[in-house]
């Protein structure tokens, strides 16, 4: 019996060695225990090697505009530039002499007025303000001031004496002594101080002189006048004839 038991145990051991398992009593394990607490963190490891440089990334989106900065200090003056091109011509401005009065008249033929009546000049060279009246033959002052009057007359056939009048009083004379076979010229000029309403005209001075004042397509006889300096008064009652 004892021999069989020994043999049987040896066989069991042999079988166990053959299949690599422990005997039944040893192969049974106990219940796993409860996990232990976490251990203390270990020390930092050594720094690793520097890695290779990566590829350039894509540009990012545009950011918002920042607030404007404060104005900087004024910089030094730059060098003088080249002259620019001339500008366009501007519109015509108002004249610096707003008061205008002028006339220039001529005869259309031989005068027929007798002495004592103004010579009527009917040919108009300039009379824009209509201050010369071709019906009466007189210039009537509308703007008080200093005026210049002049006349240039062609004389044909007879001696002629012409006078310039202001308000019925003579201010200048011209006598032409005619020579047969020629056309003569008689002229004169005067500066007058006029008030509004004053009248100036030309006429034959004396009955003993016949009218020899002449004009045709080749010869003119003219009477002209224009304002030199206006005399505008602040008080209208001061604008009286003198």
Automatic annotation (TrEMBL):
Gene3D superfamilies: 2.60.120.40. Residues 1-93 are annotated as: Disordered. It is found in: Secreted, Extracellular space, Extracellular matrix. Its main location: secreted. The keyword Transferase does not apply. SUPFAM superfamilies: TNF-like (SSF49842). Keywords: Extracellular matrix, Secreted, Signal. Residues 41-55 have a biased composition (Basic and acidic residues). InterPro entries: C1q_dom, Collagen, Collagen/C1q_domain, Tumour_necrosis_fac-like_dom. Residues 96-234 form the C1q domain. It holds the Pfam family Collagen. PANTHER family: ADIPONECTIN (PTHR15427:SF20), EMILIN ELASTIN MICROFIBRIL INTERFACE-LOCATED PROTEIN ELASTIN MICROFIBRIL INTERFACER (PTHR15427). This is C1q domain-containing protein. The lineage of its organism: Eukaryota, Metazoa, Chordata, Craniata, Vertebrata.
